[in-house]
Give the backbone structure.
Amino acid sequence: MKLWIYITFILLIGFASNSGGQEPLHTSIRGYKVPAIVRNGDTIPHITLRLVYVYPKLRFKNKRQERYYYKLVRDVKKTLPIAKEIRNVVIETYEFLETLPDDEAKQRHIKAVEKGLKKQYTPRMKKLTFSQGKLLIKLVDRECNQSSFRLVRAFMGPFKAGFYQTFAALFGASLKKEYHPEDEDRMIERVATLVENGQL
């Protein structure tokens, strides 16, 4: 018994000498700092909780439908971040173009952006399946409120937009494909919303 008391005493002395005047261990508090409001003399924690989206429970008619759903979840998780990155690039490029003095400087910048995007995204795009590529086109429309075709035409002109559209059409895709969250794309919207909110 005396041995344990001695060991405990040594440890306490060691801690006190190493703490350098810091707050003792037993007074540290674990938790989260949150904003508070004072109402009628009482301090009340004031926490804004994130929205939680609740959808009706899915009922699959068969295994094929169930597999499609889980494949969609996987594909959205893979392509939604890319669509959001594209939105950010569009916003940054547009804002920077507004600061340039003339059309020649704007064209030079657009070519530089195009070259940088090809270098950055080509390896990632090669890893996408065909269905993921088609989904990405829709998600770009979701994030940018414009089809991929309109974005390319706005930044690179009608000739390049037409070229890329023809190229996509060869593989059965379309840059003009629009996103309809209330209709044909409501399942994509459901999955994307839950993924964005960390619920899926």
